[in-house]
Design brief:
The complex is a heterodimer. By secondary structure, chain A is α+β, with helices and mostly antiparallel strands. Chain A has 2 domains: 31 residues; 77 residues, Sandwich (mini-chromosome maintenance (MCM) complex, domain 2). Helices cover 25% and strands 33% of the residues of chain A. A 4-stranded antiparallel sheet of chain A has the order 2-1-7-6. Chain A has a 3-stranded antiparallel sheet with strand order 3-4-5. In chain A, a hairpin with a 2-residue loop joins strand 1 and strand 2. The radius of gyration of chain A is 22 Å and the shape is elongated. In chain B, helix 1 crosses helix 3, helix 2 runs antiparallel to helix 3 and helix 4 packs antiparallel against helix 5. The two termini of chain B are 36 Å apart. Classes of the chains: A alpha+beta, B mainly alpha.
């Protein structure tokens, strides 16, 4: 079965396959690499609490209706290190790396969103 | 494609049917094109039953027919078969002149254009597999152009390009292999028939 399939591939076809594979790999790398984030926008109760650069490692405490959420920034990544929300979704989301990533702690009304050099879309419908 | 015939040999003149009927004289080539387009149409219908993870990612089985027709009867016949398949398919699925129809049309048109170019590549080195891969890439290029210029003029569709390109490479290769296999079988069949008759 495989040998009969292979005999239909002529030398130039291998070249085409190789070029096609490289082309796809190149497209994937260039289009999916994503923007490196450079700022974290921290919101509390729907208002911007502070915008901090990711270049400096730090811990930020934000007070919400349930208590204090702690946001930590380390090596150009950000996460919610602790939060009083019952289900801990935003904490379990882990480190945010790319622009556009966001962690929301709805019960405590705190969110962290990473932004890059250019503003991207939030959603796409078609 | 010939015009409407008129003359005493019309069936109506022999009182076989009413004289208001229009008779189109069709050539053997027309019948052949229609048969091939019908096969392609069948494959399109078959394929629509296969679930797809992402709208637009389809194997494009009908292109196997286009490839075989291209290799056997030339570009003009392949264009007829391919465009007839798009038209008749859209009528069958009820999406004539909808965005889906224009997506099929742009994909088919651009892949026909590319097939017209790549079929001049030396046949010793480049076979149906190459033709199929180039046509598949042309197909998604045509579709993405319509999507970007008309349906979703947003840079966001760039994120889908790697998915479509991967699908084009994989399905292009598979379709090319299937087409090559069919042509090979037909060749060995005709040679055997020739040997038997001699």
């Amino acid at each position: 079965m495989y040998s009969t399939a292979l005999q239909h591939i002529r030398p130039g076809d291998w070249l085409t396959l190789l070029c096609g594979g490289l082309f796809v790999a190149m497209l994937t790398l260039s289009l999916w690499s994503g923007d490196r984030a450079d700022k974290a926008v921290i919101r509390s109760g729907g208002k911007i609490f502070s915008v901090v650069p990711l270049s400096r490692d730090q811990q930020i405490e934000v007070r919400g209706p349930l208590g204090i959420s702690i946001i930590s920034i380390r090596q150009r990544e950000a996460r919610i290190a602790s939060d009083p929300s019952p289900r801990q979704y935003c904490v379990r989301q882990g480190w945010l790396k790319q622009a556009g990533e966001i962690a929301l702690c709805l019960p405590n009304q705190v969110s962290v969103e990473l932004t890059g050099s250019k503003k991207r879309y939030d959603s796409l419908n078609y | 494609m010939q015009g409407v015939s008129a003359g005493s040999e019309l069936p109506c003149a022999l009182h076989l049917e009413p004289c208001s009927s229009i008779l189109l004289n069709t050539t053997a080539e027309d019948h052949h094109v229609a048969r091939m387009a019908a096969v392609a149409l069948g494959l399109t219908v078959l394929e629509s039953a296969i679930p797809s993870p992402l709208p637009g990612v389809k194997p494009g089985l009908a292109n196997i027919v286009t490839l075989i027709v291209l290799a056997r009867y030339g570009w003009r016949t392949a264009a007829w078969v391919s465009l007839l398949r798009v038209m008749a398919g859209s009528l069958l699925f009820g999406n004539f002149l909808t965005p889906g129809f224009f997506l099929s049309l742009s994909g088919a048109a651009l892949s026909l254009a590319v097939l017209g170019l790549v079929r001049h590549l030396p046949g010793r080195w480049f076979g149906p597999v190459s033709h199929s891969i180039y046509a598949a890439f042309a197909h998604i290029t045509g579709q993405l152009l319509v999507v970007y210029l008309w349906l979703i003029p947003h840079a966001g569709i760039a994120y889908l390009i790697p998915v479509f390109a991967t699908a084009a490479l994989v399905f292009g290769t598979v379709n090319g292999l299937i087409a090559a296999h069919f042509m090979d079988n037909a060749d060995s069949f005709t040679t055997k028939a020739a040997e038997n008759s001699s």
